[in-house]
């Protein structure tokens, strides 16, 4: 399918230890990961497996204790300065004092994009996430799902090659979450952006991804990579297909064996646990 | 349809409806005010309450009419002192707040003194300020006001400047934005609601400060002096007239700040109010 281009994310022997009050905790250990351009990769695992930490290391929001991280063929810090990625957090982090339009324009403002161009791009992005009618609204006037769509529009406004998403739909109800999943796939197919997606929902990971990275806690490590070869475009029929159920089971089993096969809550079908460091 | 266009196309009917809604909202307060005045007047007449205990509203209105020019000039003097001190306290509070938020050493060096300054009872400081800055000079009253205004401004602004939402900071970091951009685009807008809260508190405090300063001496055409001197000669109607002017000035000052708040942050919860 791909002609094996250079990976957009390359992590080699990455480790992360946190120091807290003299005690050292290994958050991530022995991480090797390559993500190809155009892929949709989910990082899945129970709370505390370091999946959010891993995402933040790619984003250069946290520095690894050891190992090498390259994004877009350069050091992660360089990539951040070159604005090679967009980021979406679990909370929408929209600014109350800005309208939806102005929120979407924020990164463009920071980057010094001229006003006319800023408007053109934000209109395009609002259309992409189907919020064109709500540009003049303030964030508090919108529902949680709409706010998160605005956050996605903002992350894509400067057309980054890579989109990093940290449990973006974790706070949404199940129905809204499924609809957001459909929309995200549509956006991914339209833009061709590579997406790295942190979640602790197995169905979500399987439905969205081209590859699922299964992680385990203490210390966080990658235990298996599961290719998801379900046909695209994916839709309601996908969620009811046999292949989908088989892959959900496969991911659940990977999580369970990774966890020693004893702790059932390691692999919730629908998780409602609050987001931690992940 | 564009919601902004919808807003501009607001019809005359809906704006009339809004005016009517506003009147309906204030009606109970107006009724209570007028009823209270009537009761007060009646009580004074029926129970023949002594003038020095409680003059009737009509007597106060009479005193106001008789001394209108003097009272209004006094009000102006006090207002200038309050506004001047407000400005000095505001600027000092903001400067110290920005220094402490930006430089850790300033926090250690300045914060204890700021807190100590706040602990000084204003009544204790007033006579000293009068002797330091000249009892006749309006500056002495302004400094008393400034001391009162300084603390709420400083502490509120420091609190928000130093405590931005971690996710907002991560977002800005992901854009590789400079510290100054973060201050401009995140910290200052986030601080605005707290800043205005401080301003509203300070607006009322500033009139209290000016009048307390005047109690301890100063030019005779000032509200504080008029209250003290007329009370001393049992001319309570005039003293009450001065008190009412002081209250009216305090309310006006407060309302100006509220209007400014609405203008500066139409997005904020305190402003969203009853609209929509």
State the gist of this model.
The complex is a heterodimer of chains A (278) and B (276). Helices cover 35% and strands 24% of the residues of chain A.
Tell me what the structure shows:
In chain A, helix 7 (202-208) packs across helix 9. Chain A is globular and about 50 Å long. Chain A has 9 helices and 10 strands. Chain A has a domain at 28-84 and 197-262: Rossmann fold (3-Layer(aba) Sandwich). Chain A has helices at 51-58, 76-81, 100-110, 115-128, 144-156, 174-191, 202-208, 236-239, 242-258; strands at 9-20, 23-35, 40-44, 66-71, 74-75, 85-88, 162-166, 194-199, 211-216, 221-227. Chain B has 276 residues and is mainly alpha-helical. Chain B has 2 domains: 1-48; 56-271, MetI-like (MetI-like fold, Orthogonal Bundle), CATH 1.10.3720. Helix content of chain B is 82%, strand content 0%. In chain B, helix 4 (68-102) runs parallel beside helix 7 (138-161) and helix 10 (223-232) packs antiparallel against helix 11 (236-264). At the A-B interface, strand 6 and helix 3 of A face helix 1, helix 8 and helix 9 of B.
* Low-pLDDT regions of chain A: 261-278
CATH topology of the domain at 28-84 and 197-262 in chain A: Rossmann fold
Termini separation of chain B (Å)? 17 Å
Q: What structural category do the secondary elements of chain A indicate? A: alpha/beta
Order of helices and strands of chain B: HHHHHHHHHHHH
Rounded mean pLDDT of chain A is 87
Shape of chain B: flat
The overall average pLDDT of chain B, rounded, is 84
Helical proportion of chain A, percent range: 25-40%
Secondary-structure map:
The complex is a heterodimer of chains A (278) and B (276).
Chain A lengths: L8 E12 L2 E13 L4 E5 L6 H8 L7 E6 L2 E2 H6 L3 E4 L11 H11 L4 H14 L15 H13 L5 E5 L7 H18 L2 E6 L2 H7 L2 E6 L4 E7 L8 H4 L2 H17 L20
Parallel strand pairs in A: 3-8, 3-9, 6-7, 7-8
Antiparallel strand pairs in A: 1-2, 1-4, 4-5, 9-10
Helix pairs in contact in A: 3-4, 3-5, 4-5, 7-9
Chain B lengths: L2 H6 L3 H35 L10 H10 L1 H35 L1 H16 L2 H12 L4 H24 L4 H9 L4 H37 L7 H10 L3 H29 L4 H4 L4
């Amino acid at each position: 399918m791909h002609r094996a281009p250079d990976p957009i994310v390359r992590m080699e022997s990455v480790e992360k230890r946190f120091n807290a009050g003299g005690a050292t905790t290994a958050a991530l250990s022995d991480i090797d990961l390559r993500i190809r351009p155009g892929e949709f990769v989910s990082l899945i695992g129970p709370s505390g497996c370091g999946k959010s930490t891993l995402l933040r290391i790619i984003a250069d929001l946290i520095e690894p204790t050891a190992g090498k991280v390259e994004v877009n063929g350069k050091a992660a810090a360089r990539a951040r300065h070159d604005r090679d990625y967009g980021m979406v957090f679990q909370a929408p982090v929209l600014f109350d004092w800005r309208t939806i339009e102005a929120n979407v324009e924020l990164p463009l403002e920071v980057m010094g994009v001229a006003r006319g161009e800023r408007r053109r791009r934000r209109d395009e992005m609002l259309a992409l996430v189907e919020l064109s009618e709500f540009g003049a609204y303030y964030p508090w006037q919108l529902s949680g799902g709409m706010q998160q769509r605005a956050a996605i529009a903002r992350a894509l406004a400067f057309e980054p090659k890579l989109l990093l998403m940290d449990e973006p739909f974790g706070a949404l109800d199940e129905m809204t979450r499924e609809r957001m999943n459909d929309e995200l796939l549509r956006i991914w197919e339209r833009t061709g952006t590579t997406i790295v997606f942190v979640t602790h929902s197995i169905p979500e990971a399987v439905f969205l991804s081209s590859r699922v990275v299964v992680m385990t806690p203490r210390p966080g490590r990658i235990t298996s990579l599961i290719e998801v070869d379900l046909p695209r475009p994916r839709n309601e029929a996908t969620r009811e297909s046999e292949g989908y159920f088989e892959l959900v089971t496969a991911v659940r089993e990977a999580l369970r064996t990774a966890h020693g096969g004893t702790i059932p809550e390691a692999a919730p079908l629908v998780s409602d646990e609050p987001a931690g460091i992940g | 349809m564009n919601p902004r266009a919808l807003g501009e196309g607001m019809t005359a009917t809906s704006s009339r409806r809004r005016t009517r809604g506003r009147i309906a909202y204030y009606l109970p307060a107006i009724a209570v005010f007028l009823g209270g005045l009537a009761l007060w007047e009646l009580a004074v007449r029926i129970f023949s309450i002594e003038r020095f205990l409680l003059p009737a509203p009509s007597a106060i209105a009479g005193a106001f009419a008789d001394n209108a020019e003097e009272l209004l000039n006094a009000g102006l003097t006090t207002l200038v002192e309050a506004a001047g001190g407000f400005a000095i306290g505001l600027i000092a509070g903001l400067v110290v707040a920005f220094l402490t938020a930006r430089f850790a050493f300033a926090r250690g060096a300045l914060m204890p003194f700021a807190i100590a300054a706040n602990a000084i009872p204003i009544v204790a400081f007033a006579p000293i300020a009068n002797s330091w800055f000249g009892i006749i000079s309006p500056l002495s009253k302004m400094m008393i006001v400034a001391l009162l205004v300084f603390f709420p401004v400083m502490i509120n602004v420091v609190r928000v400047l130093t405590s931005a939402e971690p996710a907002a900071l991560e977002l800005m970091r992901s854009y590789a934005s400079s510290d100054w951009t973060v201050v401009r685009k995140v910290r200052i807008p986030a601080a605005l609601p707290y800043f205005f809260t401080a301003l509203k508190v300070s607006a009322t405090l500033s009139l209290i400060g000016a009048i307390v300063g005047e109690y301890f001496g100063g030019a005779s055409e000032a509200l504080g002096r008029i209250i003290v001197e007329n009370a001393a000669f049992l001319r309570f109607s005039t003293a009450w007239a001065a008190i009412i002017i002081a209250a009216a000035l305090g309310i006006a000052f407060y309302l100006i700040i509220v209007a400014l708040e609405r203008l500066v942050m139409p997005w904020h919860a305190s402003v969203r109010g009853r609209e929509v």
